[in-house]
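Quick one, T. Sequence first:
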Amino acid sequence: METVENIIGEISGVVWGLPLIFLLVGTGLYLTIRLTFFSFRQLPYALSLVFKKGDTKSKGDISHFQALMTALAATVGTGNIAGVASAVAVGGPGAVFWMWITAFVGMATKYAEAILGVKYRVENENGEMSGGPMYYIEKGLNLKWLAVIFAAFAAFAAFGIGNMVQSHEAAGVASQNFNIPVWATGIFLAVLVALVIIGGIKSIGKVVGVIVPVMIIFYIGAGLLIVLSNFADVPSAFALIFTDAFTGQAVAGGAVGAVIQQGVARGIFSNEAGLGTGGIAAAAAKTDLPARQALVSMTQVFIDTIIVCTITGLALVMSGVFERADDFDSAAQLTSAAFEQYLPGFGGIIVAIALLFFVFSTIIGWSYFGEKCFTYLFGIKAAMPYRIAFVIALFIGAVVSLDVVWGFADVMNGLMAFPNLVALLLLSGVVVNETKKFRKKRQEEKAEENKAS
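Structure tokens:
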């Protein structure tokens, strides 16, 4: 077993090496420039769309808001707590800066994924929308074999990174903080998730539409309490983040490359820009134009990384606990210690509760992504067997050791990116054309608004 773990670890190191990181960031930068920084310029409007009354006339299964919450459900998770802590512990405070850079170019990537997800979506025999990289690779590039490869990687990844790994993390947190047996957490999670996902995307949309905003506000609220009550430490924390990003002084040997690699890799792990999941969620939304939903979808990257990850990063840097990383058994404990330092008695509990909510939402989001890829491969009748298998795997994940599962899922997660990024680059012209259509429509809407006023 140890040999298998070592082999998978080596493969994971290759898959998630510098070539993939450069491809992910490079694709985002290329799309950002080709779209003339459209994602930056339209961010205020995109954020306003999130809270506007949804489109009820256009085709789709769920609202703009619910589609965004489904995407956020899958991405706001352990990466925002443990991932950021790991990046700062290994790469130093400057890693936070490179997470920001990844997010800013990642918005264009997520925007492109969502546009293509909506444009090439199809309606299945149950009247539900299906879309994502497998559909725009097949229909946009006429490369069925590459679409099948993406779907297979994603379906496998969902059982690992979006299922067993998450239930195992939840069971560990519940056992450590609340003395709940791991088997009890496994059963509870399995039953709770089954009640949500058996009803399909409409049920998922309703649940995440409530849970995700609450959990994000809860965590951000605690983080803001720390920041505002210790505001005098904030400027120096930001200064350390910016200076360390280009000097690597907080890293052994002053390796700037280590700072960049950790920040970029963990930023991508957190917001998933480039992995293709954003296009799957966006395809279910009711929208008149692909670009309108795409603008909503790209705010997921902003919320996930620029807001939630920054809260974690600031707490870690301000507290200085990242300098004692060797004293902790896990990265999540670093964040817990940082919160506990500023909120004695309940800071650690806040992180534990937030992590449990994040894990639950990630499981729900990934169940949908995995199911869509699985039904693409085996047909709509495979949906219910997939949901049942997904629920059973949650219990297994809670009670068994997952070193091999984590490594395998990590490899599948990384391999998803390659076919998706190829499609984004080759279909970038379609993204540009759809953006032009939206701009024209938006100009007409503004003219009507001016007439009305």
